[in-house]
Write a structure and sequence with these properties.
Rossmann fold, 5-stranded parallel sheet, 5 strands
């Protein structure tokens, strides 16, 4: 079959179009595969707020034989979960993030009457882009559904206040010494705030995660805190939650 000059040109253009489309589709496919295989990167944060209790920060106390000024009962500051998390997140940031570390054990014990604006104004004005809340251990036993609801409501108010002017990433950790009612209240509050809940209940089942398994302590309460290995495990769980 013979083609006219116009038909021949049309066929050439159609062939070129087919080739271009094939190349484009191939490029899209290769790009998609490459992106899928790219390692996930950790988001960068400029300000990190750690709110917790003695596991997060505890000053020296001769009464209980604790002379550190970091998370009880890590052997050094760099080995508590706060500084492990900070060091890891600093690797993905051009500038080392600023951190604010606060012990809010009083909030745990007095959650029903605690004045957030009075006691945590520095935390609110810090304007963090990452909030890591690690509480529960010092909350009195929740004996009724009403007490559980009140604790949950208090945590919700705390997270809501932190989100008032900014929209930080929220991480809430369950208790190192697990408690079903407390942990469920924390989980519900975290969910309502749009945060990520980190369940570390399994850590308490491993004796190696307690400081008493690493060295001797004068006070049994200090010894029951996470040691270096426990702190590392807590940090690992939090860092996993921060990953995209």
């Amino acid at each position: 079959m013979k083609y006219t000059l116009t038909e021949t040109r049309s066929l050439k253009w159609f062939s070129l179009f087919e080739m271009a489309m094939s190349c484009t589709l191939a490029l899209i496919f290769l790009t998609t595969v490459a992106q899928a295989n790219e390692p996930k990167t950790t988001p960068t944060f400029q300000k990190i707020l750690f709110l917790g209790n003695s596991i997060t920060l505890h000053g020296p106390s001769k009464k209980i034989g604790w002379d550190g000024n970091w998370g009880m009962a890590a052997s050094s500051q760099k080995k508590d979960y706060v500084h492990i998390v900070t060091a890891s997140l600093s690797k993905s940031s051009v500038v080392k993030p600023k951190i604010l570390v606060k012990n809010i054990a009083t909030f745990e014990r007095q959650y029903a009457t605690y004045n957030l604006k009075e006691h945590l104004q520095d935390a609110f004005t810090f304007h963090p882009d990452l909030v890591i809340l690690t509480i529960g251990e010092n909350v009195p036993q929740l004996k009724t559904a009403e007490e559980q609801a009140k604790f949950q409501s208090s945590v919700e108010q705390l997270l809501k206040q932190l989100q008032k002017d900014h929209h930080p990433t929220i991480i809430v950790r369950s208790s190192f010494w697990p408690n079903k009612l407390k942990d469920e209240a924390l989980r519900q509050a975290c969910q309502k705030a749009g945060g990520t809940f980190v369940d570390i209940r399994s850590l308490s089942k491993e004796e190696k995660n307690y400081a008493r398994s690493e060295r001797e302590f004068q006070h049994a309460g200090v010894a029951a805190h996470p040691g270096d290995q426990g702190m590392q495990a807590i940090a690992d769980a939090i860092l996993k939650a921060v990953q995209p």
